[in-house]
């Protein structure tokens, strides 16, 4: 009697599933999904859901009206851990045309006040949402009221709030500029419409981005756990919202020789550190960015975030190995939420 082995079917790679999805989309779905009497053909909507789930169950999707094209397909991450994947799916998308455009973020809806979201048998009209603000320097905390929130169990109240917040100001701006979000069951006399957040976001953006749309930098001073002075220089906003494909944290720790008062490098050490920061940043190109530095007496830590699908982390390590002033330590970890620099984030 011979032995028979059951061969397991190898699951296609995620990249292969992304390519297969867009091939199906171009060959079949894009033309036919818009033929339904209600706007979208149900059989293709169901197949769209199945095929995106095959890529990852952490991805969600929406169909809507495009800003330039007739329609828009949005494939987005429901959690920050999947944001890099959503961006890679977008990069693999076909070029937009007259009929379709593509995004990996929910966009602010031009007709937001006309939207109504149905959840658990309750209707959440956009015009009925109200917001109470607590403005910080670079963000806003909000309490969100809608009369139908009380009809939902507590663990479901955040869903209509987060969906309509994304459609009011856009998913990227919600992640970048809105801090604490709390659903509340009572209105407040100082509440504003949800669309009023657009003006708030415009003011926050104007205060944090330069004339080229790039983050400004702030210098922070404190005391480390060992009692030594610490100086941090950080970009604002220090969030992944605008760089979702930079999902890997690389920390480079550099010992330096020449110190000034207050634990700062001086002389040749200061010059060498500056030159290394510039060289490493330039070498990354579009594959990553320096987002913060921390300096204590005799040591500087450079915080980079890079695209984990590239060789950027290796390039950073290779570019710092010949540092002439002392020991070099390089650590890399997956961190799509940028939690490793959360302690440096300015609100």
Question: How would you explain this protein's 3D organization?
Answer:
The chain has 347 residues and is an alpha+beta fold. The protein is built from 8 helices and 15 strands. It has helices spanning 14-32, 42-55, 83-91, 158-169, 171-177, 197-208, 267-284, 312-320, and strands at 59-65, 71-77, 100-103, 116-119, 122-125, 130-135, 140-145, 178-184, 192-193, 216-223, 229-236, 248-255, 288-296, 299-306, 328-334. It is globular.
Termini separation comes to 71 Å
Instruction: Please compute the radius of gyration using only Cα atoms.
Output: 24 Å
Strand content: 25-35%
Strand order of the largest sheet: 10-11-13-14-12-15
Look at the helices and sheets and give the structural class. Answer: alpha+beta
* Largest sheet entry: 6 strands, antiparallel
- Helical residues, percent: 25-40%
Q: Give the strand tally.
A: 15
Q: Note the overall shape.
A: globular
Give the ordered list of helices and strands: HHEEHEEEEEHHEEHEEEHEEHE
Number of helices: 8
Low-confidence stretches: 1-5
Mean pLDDT: 91
Which oligomeric state applies?
single chain
């Amino acid at each position: 009697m011979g032995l028979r082995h059951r061969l397991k079917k190898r699951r296609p790679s995620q990249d292969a599933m992304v390519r297969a999805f867009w091939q199906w989309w171009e060959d079949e779905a894009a033309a036919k999904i818009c033929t339904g009497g209600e706007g979208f053909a149900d059989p293709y909507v169901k197949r769209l859901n199945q095929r995106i789930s095959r890529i990852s169950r952490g991805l969600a999707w929406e169909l809507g009206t495009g800003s330039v094209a007739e329609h828009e397909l949005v494939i987005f991450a429901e959690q920050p851990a999947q944001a890099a994947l959503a961006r890679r799916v977008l990069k693999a998308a076909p070029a937009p045309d007259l009929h379709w455009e593509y995004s990996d973020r929910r966009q602010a809806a031009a007709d937001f006040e006309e939207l109504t979201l149905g959840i658990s048998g309750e209707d959440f009209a956009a015009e009925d949402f109200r917001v109470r603000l607590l403005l910080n320097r670079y963000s806003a905390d909000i309490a969100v009221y809608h009369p139908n929130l009380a009809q939902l169990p507590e663990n479901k109240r955040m869903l209509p709030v987060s969906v309509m917040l994304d459609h009011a100001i856009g998913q990227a701006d919600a992640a970048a500029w809105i801090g604490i979000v709390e659903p509340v069951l009572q209105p407040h006399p100082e509440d504003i419409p949800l669309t009023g957040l657009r003006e708030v976001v415009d003011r926050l953006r104007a205060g944090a981005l330069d004339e080229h749309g790039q983050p400004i930098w702030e210098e922070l001073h404190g005391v480390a756990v060992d009692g030594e002075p610490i100086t941090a220089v950080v970009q604002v906003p220090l969030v992944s919202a605008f760089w979702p494909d930079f999902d890997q944290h690389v920390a480079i720790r550099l010992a330096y020789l020449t110190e000034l008062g207050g634990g700062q490098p001086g002389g040749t050490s200061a010059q060498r550190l500056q030159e290394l920061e510039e060289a490493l940043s330039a070498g990354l190109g579009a594959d990553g960015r320096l987002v913060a530095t921390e300096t204590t007496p005799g040591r500087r830590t450079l915080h980079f975030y890079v695209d984990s699908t590239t060789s950027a982390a290796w390039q950073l390590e290779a570019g710092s190995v010949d540092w002439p002033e002392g020991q070099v330590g390089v650590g890399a970890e997956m961190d799509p939420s940028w939690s490793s620099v959360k302690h440096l984030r300015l609100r």
